[in-house]
Amino acid sequence: MAEVPEVEIITRDLRQAVIGRRIADLEVLAPAAVRFPSPDDFVTALRGRRIVDARRRAKFILLGLDDGQTLAVHFMLWGELSLRPEGAERPSETLVILTLEDGEALFLTDTLGYARVAVGPTAELCARLKLEELGPEVLDTAFTPEVLARRLGRRRSPLKTVLLNQRIIAGLGNRDADESLWRAGLDPRRLATSLSRDEVSRLHQAMRTVLEEGLALRGTQRDLFGVKGKAKHRRNVFERTGAPCPSCTTPITHERVGGRNTHWCPRCQPEEGTATGPTQGVLW
Questions:
Q1: Per residue in 161-193, pLDDT tens?
Q2: Which residues of 172-192 are buried (b: 16+ CB within 10 A; e: fewer)?
Q3: What residues have CB less than 8 Å from 16, skipping those under 6 apart?
Q4: Which of 134, 103, 87 lies closest to 22, judged by CA?
Q5: How far is CA 54 from the centre of its chain?
Q6: Domain 145-264 belongs to what topology?
Q7: What's this model's pTM, rounded to 2 decimal places?
């Protein structure tokens, strides 16, 4: 599942492998994968352009081009981007191919076909994708417990729902939200306004730890060069309904919170909020 660690790893790989290289040609195999402009205009806009920058905003990969445009890539759930030799066999799930100078190509693939790309002048693209409306990044050094407290303040919604609201906090996905709440010992159904200062601090540290350990293990998917990350998709609680909690052996429970599948340990994450988090076990 492509969440922040997976997207950040690919972004870092792109900085290493494609900055300064020109897009010699490209092919759109699945027109629906192009969010805007039209597929033909997408090809025209990118052909001959040089990639000058690679950065991430939430779960978007943003590739800056030498003419002031930006190419945005979003993996959705299971999209992947790989760098392969030009002319390599095309997997059946290939959506877009960007052929680079010097004999390599970027393949955007997705078994579900949901991954999307878009290109346009940077300011226009950011506006259309509403990137400026996104909340702060968890991995940003400016994201402190005080910032988190302000973002959660006056939010009379369940914690899980608030954490997944991209306008409040950018990029935290379903998996990493569940794991962060488990690490912090917080019931995902509690109202965001109910957290004490200590609980906010624990949650802040848990969110950072979950994402940083995901990065250290290079995510759960394959990186740009085809190497599989070492992080596990099913970690301590996520999608482990009925399995024993790694900390206390209580069966993991499951419920839909705000329309999203949510997993937690009833003992380590009590509804009344008296626990301090798991006492043992690891994230992966």
A1: 999 999 999 989 999 999 999 999 999 999 999
A2: bbbbbbbbbbbbbbbbbbbeb
A3: none
A4: 103
A5: 15
A6: Helicase, Ruva Protein; domain 3 (1.10.8)
A7: 0.92
Residue with tokens 């609980």: 199
Reported CATH class of domain 4-133: alpha beta
User: Per-residue DSSP letters for 170-226?
Assistant: BS--HHHHHHHHHHHT--TTSBGGG--HHHHHHHHHHHHHHHHHHHHTT-SSB-TTS
Q: Which residues fall within 8 angstroms of residue 55, CB to CB, at 6 or more apart?
A: 11, 61, 62, 64
**What are the structure tokens assigned to 69, written together?**
């445009």
Quickly state the pLDDT bin for 206 (edges 50, 70, 90). very high
* Domains of the chain, residue spans: 4-133, 145-264
Q: pLDDT digit string (tens) for 249-283?
A: 999 999 999 999 999 999 999 987 655 556 444 43
Residue 210 in contact with residue 237, Cβ under 8 Å? Answer: no
Question: From CA 107, how far away is CA 81, in angstroms rounded?
Answer: 6
Dihedral through CA 206, CA 171, CA 226, CA 106, nearest 10? -160
Give yes or no for a contact between 270 and 38, defined as CB atoms under 8 angstroms apart: no
Pair of tokens at residue 187: 């019931």
Structure tokens at 209: 């730890």
The 10s digit of each residue's pLDDT in 27-79 is 999 999 999 999 999 999 999 999 999 999 999 999 999 999 999 999 999 99
- What is the Cα 104 distance to its own chain's centre? 26
